[in-house]
């Protein structure tokens, strides 16, 4: 999954991830994304994170520097000229190559599959919209939470049977 950041300055928590492919049964990725938290709709290029932009800039700076050095290296051949007591030499020595900035995606708590478009995305907690189709999905989160609570209640009964009431209290 690829990290994205909402361009809306007032949006919190802003960061989410989308799958590289929208999901099963889809043939193309949308040109627009919807923020799953605030519903902001914009061209997907506006959803790049600041870290991704800085990483891309560092890649470009490094590639420009390498290209420039390669061009100089191929155009400047070592020359040594000696005439009496005067000596002239021309030589190319490559300079500093900038490092590429490190970049790592953040980990998110919840992976969601939209029940309408089947697109996969990840969010910090509850989201209100699918980033791909904009479909409201609060009910999807409620159903998932109910299922988790149901499993916890089942686990409580198993713990009570095997370890006693005090273990349930700690659970």
Can you offer a commentary on this structure?
This protein has 3 helices and 8 strands; from the N terminus they run ββββαββββαα. The chain folds into 2 domains: 1-136, no CATH class; 142-171. With 171 residues, the chain is an alpha+beta fold. The protein is elongated.
Which tags fit this structure?
alpha+beta, 2 domains, four-stranded antiparallel β-sheet, two-stranded antiparallel ribbon
* Overall morphology: elongated
Number of strands: 8
The biggest sheet, with number of strands, parallel, antiparallel or mixed sense and barrel status, is: 4 strands, antiparallel
Pattern of helices and strands: EEEEHEEEEHH
Q: Could you say how many structural domains there are in total?
A: 2
Low-confidence stretches: 23-27
**Fraction of helical residues:** 25-40%
Based on secondary structure, the structural category is alpha+beta
| Strand order, largest beta sheet | 1-2-8-7
Terminal Cα span: 33 Å
Radius of gyration: 28 Å
- Number of helical segments with 4 or more residues: 3
Average pLDDT score: 84
Hey, roughly how much beta strand do the residues contain? 15-25%
Concise account of the structure shown:
By secondary structure, the chain is α+β, with helices and mostly antiparallel strands. It has helices spanning 50-75, 138-163, 165-170, and strands spanning 2-5, 15-18, 32-34, 41-43, 79-83, 86-90, 110-113, 120-123.
